[in-house]
Amino acid sequence: MGSIEFQTNIGIGLLAIILAIGIYLAFFYKELTKEDLPKQKLSKDDFKETMKTLSAEENSMIERLIESEGAMFQSDLVEKSGFQKVKVSRLLDRLEGLGIIERRRRGMTNIVLLKQPKKS
Predict the structure, then answer these.
(1) Which is it for strands 109-114 and 101-106: parallel, antiparallel or unpaired?
(2) Residue span of the structural domain in which 5 resides
(3) Per-residue pLDDT tens for 17-36?
């Protein structure tokens, strides 16, 4: 009988923890908005050397990020670029591999951050 009582108490404890997490998310979780994105002062001149080595489509991604002060949701980048999701994802993969951008997962989307170019 002691085993069933122990298992019941464990079950009730787990249920309480899950309920507490649910209440926290329901009342205190804040959805990330465009205003919450980090802002940087950037210009095309900062990336002139880097952009010489990139394709026109990759340059388009960089220009959009510069216009949005260095940070943008990936979904907004798809919308503003006019490219399909797959193409944007592949372009960003390449830029991330080159160390030009960084993607951070936020919920169901990514935030794309433009890294400051290294000064020569």
Answers:
(1) antiparallel
(2) 1-30
(3) 999 999 988 887 776 666 66
